[in-house]
Amino acid sequence: MNPEELNKIATAERTMQSQYRHTINVCVAAGCLSSRADQVQQALENEVKQRGLDSHCDVKGVGCLGLCAAGPLVTVDKVTINGQESGRRESSVPELMYQSVTAADAAEIVAALDQAPVQRLVCPTNVPFFTRQKKIVLENSGVIDPERIEEYIAADGYAALLDVLTTKKPMEVVAEITRSGLRGRGGAGFPTGLKWGTVAKAAGATKYVICNADEGDPGAFMDRAVLESDPHRVLEGMAIAAYAVGASQGYIYVRAEYPLAVKRLKLAIRQAERLGLLGTNIFHTPFSFSIEIRLGAGAFVCGEETALIASVEGKRGQPRPRPPYPAERGLWEAPTLINNVETLANVPAIIRNGADWFAGIGTEKSRGTKVFALAGRVQNTGLIEVPMGITLREIIYQVGGGIPEGRRFKAVQTGGPSGGCIPEQFLDIPVDYESLAQVGSIMGSGGMIVMDETSDMVDVAKFFMEFCMTESCGKCVPCRVGTAQMYDVLEKITRGQATAADVEYLKDLCDVVRNTSLCGLGMTAPNPVLSTLRYFKNEYDARLRPDDHNGNGAAQPVEVAR
């Protein structure tokens, strides 16, 4: 593969696309497939063929269109190639979208291609769910066929990799990422450029790049959707990162529960290797880079860097003390760069558009956009990408469409089991790393679960504590025993058998587990408990023993050996 050949593929694909008067896109990501979107796609293809419209109507499967609550989703585009023939829509907002489509609707949809739309199926797209989003990571999702590398190339795919390999030195790439202000999208928001620079400067002839796709938070599906919808974007981001830090081997650690993501990743790797975009001497340069997939068994703790590394090495997924950090001594004792899916998916766009472009989005300390899996008691559940700094109120009431059934908002949990529950009084805070931390939560990987007035916050805390207790690897005593003790106290409270002293004991347990656990699982496990105690203490008090609302009883925790 050389630059001319890459351009030839892009031009050929754009020319082919321009021949179609209409393109019917069917979401074939996991959410819509669970509602039989594959049958919808087949029915549309059959209908187009039977009507003899093959030459000017293309039916294709695309990635996640976002509004999962209304799936299966189908969009109909007229020719959308712009003056520069970029291969992308002029806008990220679909021109015409149909919702809750079934195979039986295919004939009506095809018949309406040059007529008025099928009104009973039309999903409005001039609404905040679409117009308030800013798509960078998801710019190709719902637009290109994730199983065709030609469509990715036609959408400027691998142009960023070509640029860095032929015009930039590795440290110039690191500097560009640093200047963009990109922070890790999988946890506390560590500066990406700083991490890259540390690995680049680390001593050692062998270095590795790992994509952390072990997405285990309840209610989270951001990474899965990106891998299913735009896998080449992640591969390109990994290759750019590898060039910047001096690595020649990469691994994608993805959980086996994501079979569709795994299937499309495997296909994407084969396609990229066939075209010479992965492998030896990419673009006829000295740079060589290969990627392999490693399947995780579903252990939440393997989202932690050192536990993930142990699992890739074939060991039990347990964390180790840090330092040394993976950037200095990681996979097989070599310097290792670990970024999550969303972080790497931002990289090609930053290289194409420049660090200043990315830094101009978001807030002073939290640049760019953030992808969220919006779930729970909200009208528009699904996948969204919004600028950093947008408020929780805007996300829930504008993008999310508000609380269903006329109920009142009660809390929103961000950051999964490691995050906190944020009450109504903080709905107007900006969504960025610092603001969420100030109210007792975290950004995390991007799970966002909305709760209404029917949610019991003690039960919510117990649910997440049970998850953390079950997912604890058991290596360190504070996490292994402490989470079990906290769960037992919460269970005692929900049974109405606890005293005020038990609640104080629960707080002490939270403090011990948070400050003495070995890894982030234990350190952050108390967050849901602490945040609900902080903002919903009355619900704990209401569950105490009827004879002990004044705190006269003594705590009698049940001893556990787990």
Structure write-up:
- The protein contains 23 helices and 13 strands.
- The chain is of the alpha/beta class.
- Strands 10-9-13-11-12 form a five-stranded mixed β-sheet. It has a four-stranded mixed β-sheet with strand order 2-1-3-4, covered by helices on one side. A four-stranded parallel β-sheet has the order 7-6-5-8, with helices on both faces.
- Mean pLDDT is 92; it is low at 79-90 and 557-562.
Compose a concise summary of this entry:
The protein is α/β, with parallel strands linked by helices and 562 residues long. It is 41% helix and 13% strand. The chain has a 5-stranded mixed beta sheet.
What descriptive keywords fit this protein?
alpha/beta; 41% helix; 5-stranded mixed sheet; 4-stranded mixed sheet; 13 strands; 23 helices; 562 residues; globular
Poorly predicted runs: 79-90, 557-562
Distance between termini? 56 Å
The neighbouring-strand order within the major sheet is 10-9-13-11-12
Strand content: 5-15%
Major sheet attributes: 5 strands, mixed
Query: Mean of the pLDDT scores?
Result: 92
Our count of helices gives: 23
Rg on CA atoms, Å = 25 Å
Question: Could you give the topology of this structure?
Answer:
Blueprint: H1 3-18, E1 22-27, H2 30-33, H3 37-50, E2 57-62, E3 74-78, E4 97-98, H4 106-111, H5 128-131, H6 149-154, H7 159-167, H8 170-180, H9 192-201, E5 208-213, H10 222-229, H11 231-245, E6 249-255, H12 259-274, E7 290-296, H13 305-312, E8 336-340, H14 341-353, H15 355-359, E9 369-376, E10 382-387, H16 392-399, E11 409-414, E12 421-423, H17 433-438, E13 447-452, H18 457-471, H19 477-494, H20 500-516, H21 520-524, H22 527-535, H23 537-541
Parallel strand pairs: 1-2, 5-6, 5-8, 6-7, 9-13
Antiparallel strand pairs: 1-3, 3-4, 9-10, 11-12, 11-13
Helix pairs in contact: 7-11, 7-14, 8-9, 8-11, 10-12, 11-14, 18-19, 19-20
